[in-house]
Amino acid sequence: MEKIYAGARLRQLRRDRGLSQVALARSLDVSPSYVSQLEHDTRPLTVPVLLRLTETFGLDAEFFAPQDTVRLVADVREVFADAAVADTLSAGELDELTANLPGVARALVGLHRRYREATENLAAITGGRDPERVAGPMPHEEIRDYFYQRQNYVAELDEPAERLAVELRLRPGEVRPALVAALADRHGVEVTTRGIEPGSDQHRYEPDRRVLHLAPTLRPGQAAFRLASQLALLEVGEVIDRLVASWAFGSGTARRLARIGLANYFAGALVLPYRTFLGVAERYRYDIARICDHFGVGFETVCHRLSTLQRRNARGVPFSFVRVDRAGNISKRQSATGFHFSRVGGSCPLWVIYEAFGSPGRVLTQIAELPDGKKYFWIARTVSRTTGGHGDPGKTFVVGLGCELPHARRLVYSDGLALGEEARVTPIGMGCRVCERPACPQRAFPLLGRPLRVDENSSTTLPYPPAG
């Protein structure tokens, strides 16, 4: 058996459960010094200790696999699922490459992404589009990659936002007037609801006059978020600039979007300060409706904040967050887990996020298993917004929140569900073009690199039956 060094995850588990090293050692029937050695990666996990951990805390053994490796394995497999690359390596060989040479694996992933961008640009040029409008990586994708690589937690903004929330004495139900006062007192900014036509901008800031216009149609939570986002640019603008400069964004547009994304992150951390929010979430067992009522914000806002609770020594459930539309487009995706969002071939139609469109307003649950055997617990619900008056099109999305199955017991949504061996599991993939499940009746494309069975004398329920 390969040696497993899992000090970080063991330490995270112990702290999440509120245990000291002595208490953990007692439950595992080992010495406190041995626990300390495990947590500092000076000794590997042995099979007996691993079994005791999984039995005591109801965990899968894969819980102790390094998060970054899980993500990197998925990225590398996606590279070799590309028809242009050709499937020349087995899954085992790809896993071994990633584990033994992670630097080489990351280089391959980076090269493949640049290759795809170049191919798409060439197709756009030869298709008659204006070459001046053909860009490299899409700016919004660059921003998602930035937060994804940081596992959706930015300590440089989260911690000062929490301190500012204490300084301003922000309380649920009283956030908006406190932020209006802070903008006026600290930065001389006037806030007004005049000057914006209904159905146009949500906010507009005039730096020269120091006037912030808010749309009068904004709900209280939306208005508070806009105020907090503007306050972020004024309070921690230099920190945001340093964070943007530390990443190799490909264009000025991407850098400006990054500034907005980081300001919005600070706003969420200010309106929903870390320890207060985590305490409420744990007290309500992550019941999103109750958290929404407590803070006076919307479902999507709470779900997004839940996906950021990865502060060292005070971690919440590590969630993946996703928002999709009816056409299957993923407009938001962030992950504090090893869950992999594919760039190729869309998403899996068996994923519960698509079923949720058929049950507006209801929270649906699913235990989903990926081809590598890792299981996740997902919840999904629709969110709708109106953008104007009668006859104007609105916006409807599904917001999904998922965690590794061992964490599901901490969520109120898992009550009454079987979570062990008898759990009802839905096998899903990362998109039909790269999915490794040849026998799936929902496949939209044949499996790359595998010949099809085409026989005029027989038929099958599978849309793309593999040969053999």
TrEMBL record:
Organism: Actinoalloteichus caeruleus DSM 43889
Residue runs in coiled coils: none
Signal peptide as annotated in the record: none
Record InterPro entries: Cro/C1-type_HTH, HTH_RamB, IrrE_HExxH, Lambda_DNA-bd_dom_sf, ScfR_C, TransReg_Diox_bact_type
Keyword terms: DNA-binding, Transcription, Transcription regulation
PROSITE patterns: HTH_CROC1
Protein name according to UniProt: HTH cro/C1-type domain-containing protein
Ranges of residues in domain HTH cro/C1-type: 10-64
Record-stated family: Belongs to the short-chain fatty acyl-CoA assimilation regulator (ScfR) family.
Transcription in keyword set: yes
